[in-house]
Amino acid sequence: MMEGTKELIELRDVRKEFGDVTAVDGIDLTVRSGEFFSLVGPSGCGKTTTLRMISGFETPTSGTVRLAGYDVAGVPPEERDTNLVFQHLSLFPHMSVGENVGYGLKKSGVGKAERKQKASEYLELVDLGGYEDRNPTELSGGQQQRVALARALVNEPSVVLLDEPLSSLDRKLRKQMQVELRKIHEKTQGAFFYVTHDQEVAMTLSDRMAVMNEGQIEQVGTPEEIYRNPATPFVADFIGDTNLFDGRAHRENGHAVVEVGETGSISFTTDDEVDDGTVTVSVRPEEFYLADGADGHFEGEVVERYFQGDQTNYVVEPDGEGVEEVTVVVQGRDAPVERGEHARFGIEEDAPVVFS
Ligand SMILES: Nc1ncnc2c1ncn2[C@@H]1O[C@H](COP(=O)(O)OP(=O)(O)O)[C@@H](O)[C@H]1O
Ligand SMILES: [Mg+2]
Questions:
Q1: Is the dihedral of CA 50, 163, 79, 190 positive or negative?
Q2: Which domain, by its residues, includes 132?
Q3: What is the pLDDT of residues 280-300, one digit of tens each?
């Protein structure tokens, strides 16, 4: 278990500027051995640049990158204990699958017999045993991506860096490869550092993840922590689906009362620490329930209703002014409220996240 706590990647106040563009704006990150860690954020937020600074293809403008405890400033990529799998396939078309996988070992002076044996071992690991003599062009996109992965794993780096490796695959294959990536990671000792703009993929795969926006890290945590307790409105909105409302808060009988909409269309109390004044509120669609009678927190007209079998999604226009619509998911096979009907909804206690 000692090994499980070793810090393999440490970024301290790392910045990268390209001319007057700040691609990475002073970030701190720690990835430990054995972790499947994702860096997730919208396109252009600085993910690839971060990864390239870890692998050594880019030099930070300022800050420190440590790998396994050592400051790697000035250490070239081939001397770092990291391997990179790119977004776009980069297999050598004139080499067999086996030669592609063994290529990294050849560069580091490993003899032919051992190269062959290692290549076979790692092709086996990615479920492509027996494909050694094929040409990469004979393989499907998913198989080629697995060869690229085997090539990145074959010299057993402490850290495998993956830059949106599944984004060129179709949806079904992508789902399949996600499961396989997770399994492959479990069979290796090192850390996977996975970059993606797809929050669903990051949530599915990661032990921990960092949410990045405009060059900065907004939150680091397990997928559950981040989903349940988003640190910022951006994180609440980017990870999973949510309703974001502008509102006001004031204290009453020891609780904070939060009102949303000009006429307080939606209102609830919370025991969370909330400063008086303007707030932003995040309520996930599944945190509402259908209320009956006087119970509940708001009323409105159901303007859309999407029956999904095991749940029903509603779009509701609350009464009063200031809240355009609320997305509500009601679990279960029953969907008692029809489109066009007026209904009352409640919010689960302590579910909303209130940002002061
Ligand atoms: N070599 C470069 N020269 C100039 N600008 C760059 C370069 N690489 C990245 N950028 C800019 O830095 C920002 C972050 O890019 P990138 O790290 O590729 O984001 P992501 O991988 O999250 O999509 C973008 O605004 C991008 O245009
Ligand atoms: Mg990128």
A1: positive
A2: 2-237
A3: 999 999 999 988 777 788 999
